[in-house]
Each structure stands twice: as C-alpha cells, then as structure tokens.
Design a protein that fits this description.
The protein is an alpha/beta fold. It is 31% helix and 22% strand. The chain has a 6-stranded mixed β-sheet. Strand 1 (2-5) and strand 2 (13-17) form a beta hairpin. It is globular. The N and C termini lie far apart (39 Å). The relative contact order is 0.18.
C-alpha cells in the first residue's frame, strides 16, 4: 500500500493497493475506488475501508481508497467534497501515465453511506455531463452504494448531515 496525494490539503490523498501480478503480465489491473462514509463529517476517514481495500487487492483488483474533505474541514461540503472526489478519481489517469499498472478505463466506484451517495453521484455525472470528459479525465465504468439504498435519495429521506454537506435545505433538493 502506498499513500499518494492528489491535492494540497491533507485530506486530498488516497491509499493505493496493488494486486500481486506476475512480472511478465502485461495487463493493467481494473481499479476499485473506495469512498468512505461517516455522515459527511470529520473525523471519519478512509481508514474505515482499509480491510475492504486489502481484501479486494488479494482478489486481483487495484484499489484506490480515496480520502476527501468533509464537513468540518476547510473546504469540506459543497462543492469541495465533490471536487475532491472527481480530482481523486481523475488522478488515476496520471498514475497510469506515470507507469503504475492500473487501467483507468476500468474504474468502479464503491462507497459506504455518504461515500455511497458520492459514488452514485460520480456515475450520474459521468453519464450526463459529456463536456467533463477530456484528457486526464477518468470515466467511471460502474458505481455501487453499499449503504444506504439508492432509493433513499428519491424518497427525499436524506439526513441532516447530507443537507449540511450540500449546504442546502430540503426545499433546495
């Protein structure tokens, strides 16, 4: 595991876990980008996902356990948290260009709780914002929210923590 920064803030870092591959294997590993939960707030961080990251790496995936600014940290919430997730995922293209054996065209984003909402937002953004794709931009191939169920967003049952992260009231959503 190697911790790599993708921005100037301490929270703008990720832990990259690479699978064991034979030295003569020319393939690049598919990437699972993990997004931690924690009510969108400090002090919860990427350490929540360490066990999952290690397990996925033993199964042949490269894992990018991504940290991001949360509510309570300078720049956390809207839009900083969302900007961080996009920048962190896009940093995979830089890592691949620098020779890390990962495939930036096979990126799956998996999140827990607040991270699950961010994962689904990333997939939606990639599916709808066609102007966002350019050089150095990574397109998310799939997304999975571990918890809560995606239907929570459609029923407008977001928690007060989600409203704080979005700096919005229920009427704005």
């Amino acid at each position: 595991m190697q911790t790599i920064t993708y921005g100037a803030c301490a929270d703008q870092a990720g832990d990259l876990h690479l699978p064991q591959m034979r030295g003569d294997d020319p393939r690049r590993a598919a990437v699972v980008c993990l997004l931690h939960g924690g009510f969108w707030r400090m002090p919860h961080g990427r350490d929540q996902m360490n066990a999952v990251a290690g397990d996925l790496a033993t199964r042949g995936f490269a894992v990018w356990n991504l940290g991001y600014r949360r509510v309570g940290a300078p720049g956390g919430g809207w839009p900083g948290t969302f900007d961080d997730v996009v920048a962190g995922i896009d940093h995979l293209a830089t890592l691949a260009a620098d020779g890390v054996a990962i495939d930036p065209e096979r990126v799956i984003v998996v999140g827990h709780s607040a991270g699950g909402q961010l994962a689904l937002w990333c997939a939606h953004r990639d599916a709808t914002d066609h102007d966002a794709h350019g050089p150095g931009r990574v397109r998310v191939a799939a997304a999975k929210s571990i918890w809560p169920a995606p239907s929570s967003a459609t029923k407008r049952t977001w928690s007060p923590a989600a409203y704080a992260a979005l700096a919005a009231s229920p009427r704005c959503l």
